Amino acid sequence: MKKISEQQFNELISGTKPVVCDFFATWCGPCKMLAPVLEEVSADYADKAEFVKVDVDEAPSLAAKYGIMSIPFVAVFKGGDMAAKSIGFMPKGEVKQFLDENL
Hints:
redox-active center; 5 strands; single chain; 26% strand; alpha/beta; electron transport; protein-disulfide reductase activity; 5-stranded mixed β-sheet
């Protein structure tokens, strides 16, 4: 999954393809556990959505805009708006279920 800046994020969510964004921090243990799960699952859903990650410490205004108080925070964006969110670590099966329900 590609790490992107706030500007890249804003451009990407304005597109037509849904975006799945992992809001994380380098110091966050559960974020480090979720990263390889999302990386693996993203390959299966690459045709349905763009998968990216944003470091909340590098983009605090995005965290504030979307009310991100706890991480990892995985969100699905469609047409520029947040369509779904999940907070905390999820095992692979839960990630797939979340994506199946929201993409």
